[in-house]
Amino acid sequence: MSFAASVLTLYPEMFPGALGLSLAGRALEARTWSLEAIQIRDFATDRHRTVDDTPAGGGAGMVMRADVLAKAIDHVSPPGDARPRLLMSPRGKPLTQARVRELAAGPGAVILCGRFEGVDQRVIEARGLEEVSVGDFILSGGEPAALVLLDAVVRLLPGVMGNAVSGEEESFENGLLEHPHYTRPQEFEGRQIPEVLTSGNHKKIADWRRAEAEKLTQERRPDLLAAPAHPLAK
Ligand code: SAH
């Protein structure tokens, strides 16, 4: 079973974009996952192919029309499609590695990319869209957010990452930020690789890495340590 992504966008040319290269691109070629980018404008009904209109109640900008979006969603995701329907949105639940893992274990995702001021609330409700944010900042459109989400998902699909172990030790996988990394040369501009890492003592190295990860997390992201699920939460 492969992960099937359907992206609804006004800019299908943005896909696969960066996901056509490197690990994700090779996995796309190997059909470990599939990607279709659907032009929302193809579902407009008037002769100007209008997808947006002025906001009810007034104000700046334009809003994407519920009727056009619903037609596009129904076309790629008819009733019975088991894939979650996501709307990239700064109002959404912040994307986490846990949600990324869930998505990667599922059949795929239908992803709607907003533009302008956003989308008519009624299509969010009528089609059960799950709003997903990639961070507390505003992008000009949902496309870069969709690329971010898919990148995070695809690298977890079976066979995509050469060294599967590296995935499990990364930031967030154990509720901690990752320890620092070093490689040759032994000395760089007067800075040495920490001695313990060249000691060959695997137990000491593991302890050092764990301690560094905890220190870094304490300094930069104490909120991660305080999360109820975290083993170090008090
Ligand atoms: N007026 C909206 C922002 C619209 S930005 C507001 O204030 O909430 C236009 C589109 O870009 C959005 O519909 C959404 O699809 C996408 N977008 C912008 N920022 C995003 C973010 N942080 N995460 C996910 N999608 C985002």
From TrEMBL:
Positions with a binding annotation for S-adenosyl-L-methionine: G114, V134, G135, D136, F137, I138, L139
Record keywords: Cytoplasm, Methyltransferase, S-adenosyl-L-methionine, Transferase, tRNA processing
GO biological process, one term: tRNA N1-guanine methylation
A Pfam short name: tRNA_m1G_MT
Annotated transmembrane regions: none
One cellular component term from this protein's GO annotations in UniProt: cytosol
Domain tRNA methyltransferase TRMD/TRM10-type per the UniProt entry, residue ranges: 6-225
UniProt keyword Transmembrane, yes or no: no
Cross-referenced SUPFAM superfamilies: alpha/beta knot
Gene3D superfamilies cross-referenced by the UniProt entry: 3.40.1280.10, tRNA(m1g37)methyltransferase, domain 2
Catalytic reaction(s) noted: guanosine(37) in tRNA + S-adenosyl-L-methionine = N(1)-methylguanosine(37) in tRNA + S-adenosyl-L-homocysteine + H(+)
EC annotation from Swiss-Prot or TrEMBL: 2.1.1.228
Domain of life: Bacteria
Gene Ontology terms, MF aspect: tRNA (guanine(37)-N1)-methyltransferase activity
Localisation per UniProt entry: Cytoplasm
Family, as annotated: Belongs to the RNA methyltransferase TrmD family.
Subunit structure: Homodimer.
Free-text function comment from the UniProt entry: Specifically methylates guanosine-37 in various tRNAs.
Protein name: tRNA (guanine-N(1)-)-methyltransferase
Source organism (scientific name): Mesorhizobium waimense
Gene encoding the protein: trmD
